[in-house]
Amino acid sequence: MSPAPTDTHGTLPAPVVARVGGGRTDRPLVVLLHGRGADESTVVALGEALETALPGRAEYAAVRAPLAEGAGFAWFANRGIGRPLPESLRSTMDWFRTWADQAGERPVVLVGFSGGAAFAGGLALDDPARWTGLAVLLGTLPFDAGVTTEAGRLEGLPVLVAQGEEDRVIPAELLARTWEYLRGTSGARTTSHRDAGGHLLTAGTVRALVGWLDEVLGQDVDGSRGATSAAPAGS
Predict the structure, then answer these.
(1) 10-53 pLDDT per residue, tens
(2) Where is each Phospholipase/carboxylesterase/thioesterase domain found (predicted)?
(3) Cα separations (Å) of 80 from 35, 68, 89, 112, 172?
(4) Can you list the alpha helix ranges (DSSP code H) found in the chain?
(5) Are strands 29-33 and 108-113 parallel, antiparallel or unpaired?
């Protein structure tokens, strides 16, 4: 785990990051974003599973959200489940970009679960060219939250959207809107997975993520999508 000792963006805390396959800046970076009220420890096991399935293909970074929420943390203040406050989302996205732009000239893939999926979607919609791929797992895009969802916004971006038919946490209308947009007018190269699960990562969802990530990591590894000219630096 690699917490930075000082504040990196206004009043928000410095990022706390748990890494799997760390220290290899020659590999693509896969960022894992946890759900609301959780922390990085809840998704680092997913990074370990992905490293086992795809050994040596990437470095995985489970990042702690910056806002305290109960016993855990959140990516944004909201006005209801899956409905970020625009000013809060903007602040935390800028905070995250400050950290992510230290990754150096390598592809960065965003993998978000639940509230982390909404945050990852916001980052992708805000600057699609910055990222190599986006996985929206058991969550919604941040509609009506200050980022555009115009037609063609994610043109060519590899996206995985995974939902559970028994999910009763994310409002059904937001799940449907996310599914339709990502598979339709977004322009993304979308892979979709739906199973009988609820609001949790099922074995089927993890298999779908592994298969999708295997394809994504085989593309653009020269940094042609999602690279930044910033010098490499620690988190």
Answers:
(1) 589 999 999 998 677 789 999 999 999 999 999 999 999 999 99
(2) 25-187
(3) 14, 16, 14, 18, 13
(4) 41-53, 86-100, 115-126, 172-183, 203-217
(5) parallel
